[in-house]
Design brief:
It contains 16 helices and 23 strands. By secondary structure, it is of the alpha/beta class. A hairpin with a 4-residue loop joins strand 9 and strand 10. Helix 13 packs across helix 14. The two termini are 40 Å apart.
């Protein structure tokens, strides 16, 4: 049965992309090639005219050209100034959410961004249908899985575009934007740019809130990867998971974890084609972690009767699950498992995702940007499995004191459970609220004396490096995506990762310089008679 689903999906995907059909109708274009807004948005209300005929949609009212449509989202600009600029620039009309005191023709809609998404989808000839469109949705591991899938598709010879929290690419040019991952009209426009750049596939990291607000309603997905364990919240209306499942094509396939039975049940109840991956439970694609030491993991990847060995520096059970999800995409595209494992092994590092900084003079430092209790727990489990025998796990957790107290308490519980030397800190911009935030963390801790509070993230990591032995492992967690992924773009996150990396490298260089000046005080080797190093072949 699974082969039938897979083969039908691949054949339909090839046929749909080899000969795309246009959804635009001749009535949407006037005799001179202009666009008719009344045709593009049939249910819209018009004022001062029965239609708005325009040539293009202006990026900004102050740079609009004569004949272009300008957009007025409520609250973004002062209405009087916007109207004056639109009249001065010769705009053809205004797309707005409220009637403005202006003689220009106006089209009033409920949400301008959703309206622009629909307009872009029609005028760009449905760019999502001219690409193999892959969405990545979930509670944890979205960025990592999206980058793995993108790397895999590119190594398979497909020109791949991607949109993630760490950067984007239209198939030719890579960039790290200052804005968050786009949705709505901006995302549809980006898909059109990807088609113009010759891309064949598009991998998109999806947001829970954008899904709930319908900002993907103008896009259909051929493949959907679900990571982590997304759960329904107490909000009214459908969950984000159900919203993205509604955007699947009829022949689309949902790649879902068998380790999350509730999510798998939701997918099957929705009637979608499911293809499973897993680490703990039986699945179509499984990844078994058989060894992990010295910053390297060895996995056994299995699909049906084929098993392949994979070695990767991306350690931990969560990373193994992400690798299995990416391999499942390759299996659905009829690629041999051995080649998929080889391609995935070429991805050596992802900034801020269990990123390891090793040295001989000091403890290894792992940087991870986890900011939710689930992500924090996964990172701590992975770091604990990566530490050397006899070594301790230090954890410097940079919190956002303004975060939900319940989430901070849950994070504190994970910190106490998995870390031998837990440290709670925050950035300089949040120092005034650190005491309140640390109290919320302590609410989830049984032994409050175990935690050390340091109201400076730089001093906290440097103190941990100086105090830890060479056999210890230090995990920096959080403090990179302050305020959530929707508040900042890839550029800010990459800069924050680079800043933390610079602190670690500077501290380690200073310790190495001190050891060179005073050889007698050099840190002793980690192997002692009390804690002998046991070779992996002798471990039980």
């Amino acid at each position: 049965m699974r082969h039938a689903v897979k083969s039908s999906f691949v054949s339909s995907a090839k046929s749909s992309h080899s000969a795309p059909t246009s959804t635009a109708t001749p009535s949407e274009l006037t005799s001179d090639g202009s666009l008719s807004l009344a045709t593009l948005i049939p249910n819209a209300k018009f004022f001062a005219a029965s239609d708005v005929v325009f040539t293009e949609i202006a990026d900004d009212v102050h740079t609009a050209q004569p004949g272009e449509l300008v957009v007025f989202p409520i609250g973004d600009q002062e209405p009087t100034e916007f109207i004056a600029a639109a009249l001065a620039r010769g705009a053809a009309g205004i797309l707005t959410e409220q009637i403005l005191p202006c003689p220009l023709p106006q089209c009033v809609v409920g949400d301008v961004d959703l309206a622009i998404a629909g307009v872009n989808a029609k005028r760009l000839n449905r760019p999502d249908r001219r690409l193999l469109t892959i969405g990545v949705f979930g509670s944890a591991g979205k960025t990592t899985t999206a980058l793995m899938v993108s790397q895999l598709l590119r190594n398979l010879g497909l020109r791949t575009s991607y949109q993630t929290g760490l950067g984007d690419c239209d198939g030719v040019v890579q960039s790290t934007a200052s804005e968050s991952v786009p949705a709505g009209g901006a995302l549809v426009q980006w898909l059109g740019d990807c088609c113009d750049a010759g891309a064949k596939t598009a991998v998109i990291e999806l947001s829970e809130q954008d899904a709930k607000h319908g900002r993907y309603d103008s896009i259909e997905f051929d493949l959907l990867v679900i990571t982590g364990t997304p759960q329904d919240d107490d909000d009214f209306g459908p969950s984000g998971l159900n919203c993205v499942l509604d955007r699947m094509t009829g022949s689309g396939v949902v790649v879902v974890s068998a380790d999350s039975p509730a999510v798998l049940r939701s997918v099957r109840d929705h009637g979608a084609n499911a293809f499973t991956y897993g680490v703990r439970h039986a699945a179509d694609v499984t990844a078994k972690l058989i060894e992990q030491e010295c910053g390297m993991s060895t996995l056994l990847m299995t699909n049906e009767s084929v098993t392949a060995v994979m070695e990767t520096p991306l350690c931990g059970a969560a990373m193994a699950s992400n690798h299995a999800a990416a391999a499942a995409i390759g299996i659905l595209l009829n690629q041999p498992l051995q080649e998929l494992v080889e391609h995935l092994g070429k991805l050596r590092e992802i900034p801020g995702r269990m990123q390891v900084l090793s040295s001989f003079e000091c403890a290894d430092v792992i940087i991870d940007s986890a900011n939710s209790p689930e992500q924090i727990g996964s990172a701590l489990r992975a770091a604990r499995s990566m530490k050397q025998p006899g070594g301790r796990l230090w954890c410097v957790m940079a919190i956002d004191p303004s975060d939900d107290p319940v989430k901070l308490a849950l994070a504190g519980g994970h910190l106490e459970r998995f870390a031998d030397k837990p440290i709670v800190t925050c950035g300089a911009e949040s120092k005034d609220l650190f005491l309140t935030g640390s109290h919320a963390v302590l609410d989830g801790v049984k032994d409050c004396a175990l935690l050390r509070l340091v109201a400076s993230d730089r001093r906290a990591i440097q103190w941990a490096i100086r105090e830890a032995s060479t056999r210890d492992t230090i995990l920096w967690i959080g403090g990179i995506r302050q305020g959530g992924t929707r508040q900042g773009g890839a550029k800010q996150e990459r800069q924050r990762v680079a800043q933390v990396t610079d602190w670690v490298v500077a501290c380690k260089d200073a310790i190495a310089a001190e050891s060179d000046r005073h050889p007698a005080t050099k840190i002793e080797t980690s192997v002692t008679n009390d804690n002998p190093m046991i070779l992996s072949i002798f471990k039980k």
